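Hey, sorry to bother you again with one of my protein questions. I've been puzzling over a protein and I'd love to understand its fold better. Take your time with it, there's no hurry, and the full record follows here:
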Amino acid sequence: MEKPRATGGSGGVGGLGTSGWRALLLPQLNRQSLYVYGSEIAVEEECTRQLQSGVLVIHPFSLIRSYYIMCMMAITFLNLIGIPMEIAFLDGANGLGWERFNVFSDTLFLIDVALNFRMGIIPEDSEVAILDLKQIRISYLRSWFIPDVIAAFPIGYILFFADLQYNNEDNPSKANRMMRILMFVRILSLIRLVRVSRLVRFFNEVEKVSNANLEVVRLFFRILSLFMMIFLLCHWNGCIQYFVPMLEEFPADCWVRKENLMNATVSVKYSWGVFRALSQMIALSYGSMDAPTNYVELWIVMVSMISGCMMYTVLVANATTMIANTDPTAKEYKSKMCRLEHYMTFMKLPPELQLRISKYYQARYGGKWFDENCVIDTVSSALKEEMLLAMCSRLLKKVPMFQDQDAHFINAVLLKLSYEVFLEGDVIARENAPGDRMFFIDHGEVGLEAGSFQKELCDGDYFGEIRVLTKGKHLATARALTDCQCFSLSWQGFQQALVGFPDVRKDLEKLVQLQADQGSNGV
């Protein structure tokens, strides 16, 4: 049998004996699956493992799973908004359309409970998806089965048929009894708000299966989930503000009668309810001119204030965590600079020198602290060559002795380059001083001085090419005219790069000697 192969885009696998619908259940090849499994081959092996299991299981990284989570997130959020609105403000006059949506939602959540028995699981302590039906069932029954069954209780069906029976009832006594039953069922439908736990889990699952930059996605969904939860808390509180007086049949001292909202539209009632909720949650006011006049309203105000304090605490805690995890290199730089300042003060360095050291750190790191050697050493040799090639190849191409040379030799030279920064006024090399390095100017300007000889070099220029071969004395003084970012090549590093290239060594020695005889700028 042909080995199935993972594909991007459609998200399934193409292989012998794999139908189109079944391919939707297999892991798709994307950034997240590659991050978890490590390679395309490993994703293909995961597809093979699922196919060989012979059972109908939805893989956590399958395309249909991704779309299913997005759809369920939207339906769940609409439910969490609509259910309190229906109970508090619509008073049974919600129309056939909303009742059909309730029935559709209940059906979808019942199907969700059934699908969870065939939904693969990624454990927290493992990167291998659980595809065994028995393990999936045991894990689901021990975790979220009971809350999901409660949240999926088909209240929508009961309300739908009860409303039909109430509308067809002609006997007044039976109609009143049916009305009380409907009210009880509507209050009972509050158990559907348990679906908020499902919404939180959907957010967590989206983070796991998303095909995007991992850290950016996590940050986005944390912010989105935080504001959605705050919105739901304010929305529910606003609905409760009106719902409790409605249960008491609007006593004379309730806020609804005081604000003359008995015959107002649903939007006006809802607006006043949310206004009271927000006023109490942020401890701005009671939401009206008067303080609570009965114990029920008093307790509602206290609960609102407590929930507002909790909301504020959660918001501050999450915001603090997000800020702390944002731009860690800048925070590390500030920490290093703080330690440096304490050190310079302790050592009683002159203020001018302290200022130059601070300027050097700013020019060298640009407000971001990172260990460049550590970064380069942790990647593969192939990636290291590509990184240095991208940063320095244009500099080497301008040097005659490196032009038209063997690519392997150029790569060997690149690995020996070191990054250096010089501040304006720094002396890079002194005339008649021993030298053993060649410099490539990445950014900045350098002035060469030797008696009456003066020359300015800028981005892409180089100097010291004779010194990298002869280790002789510098023929001129090199001074940074501006802050300069350079790459340097030492004599020792160059000799190591020349190992295995004897022909290149001979050619370079002849070229450098010729340039020296012609009076080049090899300082």
About this structure: The first strand starts at residue 5 and ends at 6. Residues 1-17 have pLDDT under 50 and may be disordered. The beta strands are 5-6, 13-14, 418-422, 427-429, 437-443, 446-450, 453-457, 462-463, 477-480, 484-490.
